[in-house]
Amino acid sequence: MMMMMMTMMIMTIIIKEITLQIVNQINYLNRGNNPPDGGQNNIIAQALIALAQVLENLQPAPVQGPREQNITQVSKFHGYGNEDPAEWVKKFDTACLTNN
C-alpha cells in the first residue's frame, strides 16, 4: 500500500510539472493579444491545470486482503467408534482447499 501511495505521489508530481511546462509554453505562445490558435491553447491549459488539481486530491483505494470464504463445512469430529479419523481429515483438507 505504501508503494502504491508513493507511486501515485510521483505520478502527480510528474503530471503537475509537465502541466506547468505546457502552460508556460502556451503562455509564451499567447504573449500577444490575439493567440494564433484562436484561444484553443487556453482551454487546453485550463484542462491540464484542472487535471493536476484532481490528481493531487486523489486518495488511493484501500488495499483489501483476500476475503475468507465458507463455501463448504465439515462436521465436527467427536471421536466416536463409528467415525474414521483418516476419512475426517481428508474431508477437512478438502474443505480447507475449497474455502480458500
Topology:
Elements (H helix, E strand, L loop, with lengths): L1 H28 L10 H18 L27 H15 L1
In words, what does this structure look like?
The structure is a single chain. With 100 residues, the chain is an all-alpha fold. The protein folds into two domains: 2-57, no CATH class; 66-100. Helices cover 61% and strands 0% of the residues. The protein has three helices and no strands. The chain has helices at residues 2-29, 40-57, 85-99. The longest helix has 28 residues, at 2-29. The two termini are 23 Å apart. The mean pLDDT is 76.
Quick summary:
With 100 residues, the chain is mainly α. The chain has helices at 2-29, 40-57, 85-99. It folds into two domains: 2-57, no CATH class; 66-100.
List keywords for this structure.
100 residues; mainly alpha; 2 domains; 3 helices; 0% strand
Number of domains: 2
Given the structure, what is the number of helices? Answer: 3
Alpha-beta classification: mainly alpha
- Report the sheet-strand fraction: under 5%
